[in-house]
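Researcher: Last one for today. Full complex below.
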Amino acid sequence: MPFARVAGMWMIIAKSTANRGWEVCVRVYSSIMKFLWCCFLTIVFLGGIVSLTYASPITLDGKFADWDGQACMNDRAYDSNPSGDILKFYWATNDNESNLYFMIERRGWGDEHDPVPTIYRLNLDLSDNGIYHNGNDRYLLIQYHPFLDGLVAIDLYKGNGNYMKSYSGNWGENTPGGGRKCEFSVSMDDLHMFPAQSIRMYVESYHIINDRCPDSGDIQWSPIPIMPLWALISIFVVALLVGTYFIRKRMRA
Amino acid sequence: MIYWILGTLVWALIGYYLHKHRIWIFYYTWTAVGLTILAILAVRSSAVEYMVEQWTGLFLHQGLAYLGIKTYIFDKAPGTVLVLLALENSWTCIDIDIECSGLLESCVLLGLLWFFPAFNYRQRVSYTLSGLLALFIINLIRLYTIVLVINFGGRDTLYIAHTLIGRLVFFMLVIVVYWYLFTRPSLQRIWRQDNV
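Model: Here's the assembly. Have a good evening.
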């Protein structure tokens, strides 16, 4: 009898402790969830306020550190004479700008700095159909003069050969600097293209032996791949109409 | 910065007012739309966007390598994937920006989820994690679809692949996610209340 009473008491104590323990567990669990919730909010809002921009913008200054790690196409070495042998062709855009940036690196003379000028031709197929000589296509003739303090002179032409515009600046490595790299840009307004447009491109060098990058085919690129506003509005309107149709149909049924 | 903080404060105060007066429909609309807009502004050009684009590009690169499609990715061009297309032996440069990374859709999901009155904290946290993960995977499926269509259909199919097929796949799968995150739990809740 005393044993049963003691056992009963212990059972009551155990039950009450378990209930309290369960309540404590629920409270702790709820607090953890609230804490995680606050963490989410904090991360999103502080993360946004801090708003770090990692990719440094490309600037035309004859310095090339800003091109490290950017999108590029490698080309075989030793398939042309050193001054015309393209090694790398880079392309990029900057945020909130409507310029296309390019950089070409050639093999050059290695440790002996290359003073020999080169002419490159950057072909742009703006109609994205694989044909480069239409009136709405463009090409850039780029004259790179390392011995003139890295002068880069650019002429913009239509695909059918009509001259459009010229640009120039000291955007290349000068001879003491190596004479291998040059950078340049062209405005999308001058090209008469819109940012979300897909284009195709390849670059050639005119020298004793011509080189091409890529060796065959070309590169398709949408500089700023944002869907045009009219397409977004069309999708929204179509979705709205379809949704309304089905809702009305269901209501009638 | 000051506009950002002021905007957030105004949004939070109005949300609080609507919540306190239990005007639920306007509360939900205001807070969900407001949070979506604030979150989009917050992640734009931020570390979060950089990270998501980088990871999406990386997964795309690895996945396409398993399928035998040659690609390149770049350190400082997050989300840029250069794909060699077998059909034409030419290159296509795919840029995964805020629109293609699924971040906009993730912000919309956060807005809808975090202020959905029927959910408690536990559900919000677990649905946020699973929802964001699901959207990331769905976006990857969309990108794989686009690349495969271009790879086998040629580069002329880029516009259709990106604008139509990719989006169709994405939105169909998003409907499935929304079913499991919003519709099904809400229906279960209603059934439970009816049974009680």
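The mean pLDDT of chain A is 82. The two ends of chain A are 72 Å apart (CA to CA).
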